[in-house]
């Protein structure tokens, strides 16, 4: 078996980053049949190919 590991910065996958943040703030396991409202805008931007930016304060 051969394994490869790679790293993608948070800016590279904002949809996954949003889901990870939702998971951290959720008190229990949650199942979604469709994308939650907090992810839809980022998902649409990713779908149409718009760049994603993260700004720190």
General description of the model:
It is a single chain. Helix 1 packs antiparallel against helix 2 (about 35-45). This protein has a domain at about 10-25 and about 35-55. About 40% of the residues lie in helices and about 0% in strands. It has helices spanning about 15-25, 35-45. By secondary structure, the chain is mostly helical. The longest helix is centred in the middle third of the chain and has 12 residues, at about 15-25.
Our estimate of the beta-strand percent is under 5%
Round the mean pLDDT to the nearest integer and report it: 87
The computed structural class is mainly alpha
The span between the termini is 44 Å
Organism: Malus baccata
Protein name: RNase H type-1 domain-containing protein
Topology:
Layout: H1 14-25, H2 37-47
Helix pairs in contact: 1-2
Protein name: RNase H type-1 domain-containing protein
Short descriptors:
single chain; 57 residues; mainly alpha; 2 helices; 40% helix; globular; RNase H type-1 domain-containing protein
């Amino acid at each position: 078996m051969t394994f490869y590991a790679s790293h993608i910065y948070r800016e590279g996958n904002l949809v996954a980053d949003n889901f990870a943040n939702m998971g951290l703030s959720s008190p229990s396991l949650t199942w979604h049949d469709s994308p939650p409202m907090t992810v839809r805008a980022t998902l649409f931007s990713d779908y149409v190919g718009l760049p994603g930016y993260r700004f720190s304060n």
